[in-house]
C-alpha cells in the first residue's frame, strides 16, 4: 500500500528540522488556531510534542534520544527545564540552544 505525501506535508507545517535547527510551527495554517501534536521526529534524535493557542506556541517537550545539542527556532521566547531544573541556554531573537542528555525530556515554556 502506498502512503501519500499528505502526512509528511502536515508534519512539515508543524515542525521543520534542517540546518541543525528544529523550527516549531513554521507554517501553521490559520484554521488550526489551537491544537497540539506529539510523536514528531526531528534530526539529531529528538522526539517532539507541542501545543499552541491562537496560532502561538504555548509549550513544547523535546525528548533527546542521543544527547546532542539542541537548537530550536520559534517565534516565542522560551525557558527550558529538565526534571524541573532550569537548563542553561544561549538565546538570540528567535533561537534557543542548549545541551541535552540522552533519554531526558526538555520542557520549553513560553515566557510572557
From TrEMBL:
Single GO MF descriptor: alpha-L-fucosidase activity
SUPFAM superfamilies: Six-hairpin glycosidases
A Pfam family assignment: Glyco_hydro_95_C
GO biological process, one term: carbohydrate metabolic process
Highest rank taxon of the organism: Eukaryota
InterPro entries: 6-hairpin_glycosidase_sf, AFCA-like_C, Glyco_hydro_b
Coiled coil regions, renumbered to chain: none
Alpha fucosidase A-like C-terminal domain location: 16-108
PANTHER family registered for this protein in UniProt: ALPHA-L-FUCOSIDASE 2
Protein name per its UniProtKB record: Alpha-L-fucosidase 2
Amino acid at each position: 500500500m502506498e502512503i501519500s505525501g499528505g502526512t509528511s506535508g502536515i508534519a512539515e507545517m508543524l515542525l521543520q528540522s534542517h540546518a541543525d535547527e528544529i523550527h516549531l510551527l513554521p507554517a501553521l495554517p490559520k484554521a488550526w488556531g489551537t491544537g497540539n501534536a506529539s510523536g514528531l521526529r526531528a534530526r539529531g534524535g529528538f522526539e517532539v510534542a507541542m501545543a499552541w493557542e491562537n496560532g502561538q506556541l504555548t509549550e513544547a517537550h523535546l525528548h533527546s534520544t542521543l544527547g546532542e545539542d539542541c537548537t530550536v527556532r520559534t517565534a516565542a521566547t522560551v525557558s527550558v527545564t529538565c526534571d524541573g531544573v532550569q537548563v542553561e541556554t544561549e538565546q538570540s531573537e528567535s533561537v534557543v540552544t542548549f545541551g541535552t542528555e540522552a533519554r531526558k525530556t526538555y520542557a520549553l515554556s513560553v515566557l510572557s
